[in-house]
Prior knowledge:
By secondary structure, the protein is α+β, with helices and mostly antiparallel strands. Helices cover 32% and strands 22% of the residues.
Amino acid sequence: MTPDQLQDLEPGAKEFYASSKHLKGFDLAKFVAMWTQLITSGTGVIFAMRDDEGQVQGAISGVIYPEPYSEGLVATEFFWFVRPQHRGKGLDLYYRLEQWAKEKQASQIRMAHLCDLMPEGLKWLYGELGFEPIEILYAKDLP
């Protein structure tokens, strides 16, 4: 996606945020500003899946950066959402992100998932794709 297409992601982003208790307050302006900078700099990418009417039905994003404590580049997925009625085709988005990571010469790709969204399904899928768990991230809301 190009920066001028980022607003097309708003309906899906709102749906994604509404599907998890861990995500709060999607801000389209902040999203567009951040991803415009990442895409323009070449360090970020978003791939979208559109239906016949041109509506975004799924998207995946990634950022590439130097591994902080060793050699090489790491590509990390930031979000991957596919509307339920299109989930059989969502794997194509992952393969395109992996190809982008290879083109950027990343030595590793890292994927995440929200624990309250399909934890067993994604655990199985990531295993099938050759991933192994490396870390669990914890969060605590502060007053």
